Amino acid sequence: MPRLELGSWIQSGVDFLRDHFEWLFDFIAKVVQGMYDGVHDVLAAPDPLLLAGILAVLAWWLRGLVPAVLAFAGFALIDSIQQWDEAMETLSLVLVAGAITIVLAVPLGIWASRNRAVSAVLRPVLDFMQTMPAFVYLIPGIFFFGVGVVPGVIATIVFSMPPGVRMTELGIRQVDAELVEAADAFGTTPRRTLLRVQLPLALPTIMAGVNQAIMLALSMVVIAGMVGGGGLGSSVFEAISSVDVALGFEGGIAVVILAMYLDRMTGALNQRVSPLGRRALAKEAAGATGGLKVLRWRPATSVAMVGVVVLALVAGGLNIFGGDDGGQKVTADVGKGRTVNLGYINWDEGVASTYLWKEILEQRGFKPKLQTYDVGALFTGMASGDVDMQTDAWLPATHASYWKQYKNQLEDLGTWYDKTSLEVAVPSYVKGVKTLDDLKGKGGTFKGKIIGIEPGAGEMKLMKDKVLPDYDLNGEYTLVKGSTAGMLSQLERSYAKKEPVAVTLWSPHWAYSKYKLTKLEDPKGAFGKGDGIHAIARKGFSAKEPQIAQWMKDFKLSEKQLTSLEAAIQDAGKGKQQDGVRAWLKQNPGLVDKLAPAGDAGAKKGKQAGAAPRIGYFPWDEDVATTYLWKNVLEKRGYKPSIKQYDVGSMFTGMSAGQIDVEFDGWLPNAQKQYWDRYKKNLVDIGPWYDKTSLEIAVPSYVKDVKSLEDLKGKADMFKGKIIGIEPGTGEMQLLNSKVLKAYGLDKEYQVTNNASPAMLAQLQRSYAKKEPVAVVLWTPHWAYNKYELTKLADPKKAFGANNEIRSLGHKSFPDKFPEFHGWLKNWHMSEQELASLEQSVQEAGKGNVEEGVQKWIDAHPGIVDKMAPVKS
């Protein structure tokens, strides 16, 4: 019988729809995506346990106390196994798909119940929708809407709609005909008969249909994870593709909990929304006694609503006022928070390179989003623009069919790894099998199987279309389709038992390090000459993100680097890929700047590259900021500086003894005069880099009638007899105690407290927040004057002395020991705006992140490294 080209006709019809109704599909995609984003924002905003409490209150209202407790425990379990975010994504998908399904299914069911012709037409259509394998719906979904949330929702709607339509029609048809006739006899219009008689009586059946539609929606949403639908579907898909029992069980148990909750809640909703259900509920409550009555008591709708609103307000408040949970620190804000969608195939080099670039892009200020796909879905998603980039395209051979199909919608960003090969491998204990030719006639040895990987992989297509036919292995061997992880699991089992096994493999792969394997030679060249691993992007990506595109074009990893990166990810364990990447980057310092240079990264090396100056600093804002700035600049010039914190006295003592080479915070000629006078014969004044400084006492501007140091006289009670000081060894503190207080007659009235500078600032912050009077030791420049409204107390008697300059000081050997660095410092100057912005950047980076703050400031000041430390070519 001649072949009926049914599939080709359907393909032509789909092509026609896509080409002529793209505007409609784009509109639908925007509506569905908008609905999903809105629902997900609501569900993802609260703290997990607060939302679990809200869902538990709903369960209490619908079913009672025990179900509420179990619901809370179930959602708490989801949170404890770190599947909460995925569960909320899945719940969002179910709610959106379920709502659209109900809106469409119930009217169709009503129409079918009132018109037998419509019912006759709908029945075979619903049969088709309900019996067609669920996976098939993903194909047109991807074709019309790309990959991601939208095709998953659309496929879910189609798959879950039949029971909603059927049960609505059935419920209305089952309403007693005599009741309908009675309504007609009393002159009721058909519309009022439907709304007041048929729908209320049919509601239990309709709600059963709604329940089934939502359950089917949940099952389909999990399948949609294969095309980037996210949520628990992605967790389950990843577990299947990597044979990860732990992740599979955790994702599966989260699905079960969601399914049970939705099933029980939608099943019980009938009792709250239908007259018959409410009557049955009241009868049940009246018949309960004792403890059973307490367990069966359900709060009134108003009480439940109040509980939900209160919890929602608490959740919203925590979301508004809660702190930032941190995350990857930005070392150079190139991306300014822009999103980049990265897709990857769950192959070792794909996982490794993708998570490496996720880490790098985060450090460069981007917000990468990762999603795993099957090969076909990944290429389709990139062609449609839903995925921006992927790093694991094997060309020109392995992925040739996909590249040929989609190359007009893609950009090749270049090869980052070459010397690859595709092969069939056997354990080295299998004797007499060295080439693919040797497999002929040995099908019994290998049980007639070659263990393959994902059916959509390019290597599998090559095996099927070329390798097996070229070596006449088709009738003798079956190419087993599965997953990469499944293939590796079979290899591990067979290897442990010393059983013969033939598997599809490729180089590079860590399996060759773990096992002794023989790569079967390919004398006929059926696999081709080997591929390069390419980074490819959707069309237009280079124009939108030229910096990333350039980074990818320059991206290269050696075999040693790639295999060690894969090993680090393997060592980190499942679900901790980025931890593995970070551990690997620590072992490869400077690689981020090499792979993704930003600003002055990769600057020229200095003439004394490798020199190791010892730098001291005080815990003062300007000194911390400038010391770490010079550390960064020197490292870019190839120096190896070491830095260490000191108090003022120890600094000058250590520097005069040659234990410290240089420091950048010498306040002269007044603040540190006593130290300079004592040690200057062993020191060198390199020169000032900042002037216009001053020492002072400051008070908040809300403290009235205190404008000068003279105004402090007689107001000790207002300030509790204290002036909040800083480190006792500083020149300013010594000036204050020995000269300033006496000059203004304050030495008997005030006590100057000795603190660290951060402690003084903390006291200022506390007092300022409470609007309490406080007097603190300060100096200019300081970021506190930008953060708070403060009054610098005038010093009419000039007790603090003339203004200082901030100078670089060093040991007397410094100019000869580090002539290049010495020359840079002699010409170094900073403006007030530059210093203030540097200090602010360090403050914003937070405690322990000074280097990140400095790097961000450098990136915001292009050319600053060359200005501070010029190197002649």
From TrEMBL:
Superkingdom, taxonomy of origin: Bacteria
Gene3D superfamilies hit by this protein: Dipeptide-binding Protein, Domain 3, Glycine betaine-binding periplasmic protein, domain 2, MetI-like
Lipid bilayer topology: Multi-pass membrane protein
Keywords recorded for this protein, A-Z: Cell membrane, Membrane, Transmembrane, Transmembrane helix, Transport
Matches recorded under SUPFAM superfamilies: MetI-like (SSF161098), Periplasmic binding protein-like II (SSF53850)
CDD domains, per database record: PBP2_OpuAC_like, TM_PBP2
ABC transmembrane type-1 domain boundaries: 87-266
Stretches that traverse the bilayer: 49-78, 90-114, 134-159, 201-227, 239-262, 303-322
Pfam families the record matches: BPD_transp_1, OpuAC
Location, primary (coarse class): membrane
Annotated compartments: Cell membrane; Membrane
Family that this chain belongs to: In the C-terminal section; belongs to the OsmX family. In the N-terminal section; belongs to the binding-protein-dependent transport system permease family.
Protein known as: ABC transporter permease/substrate binding protein
Species this protein is from: Streptomyces cuspidosporus
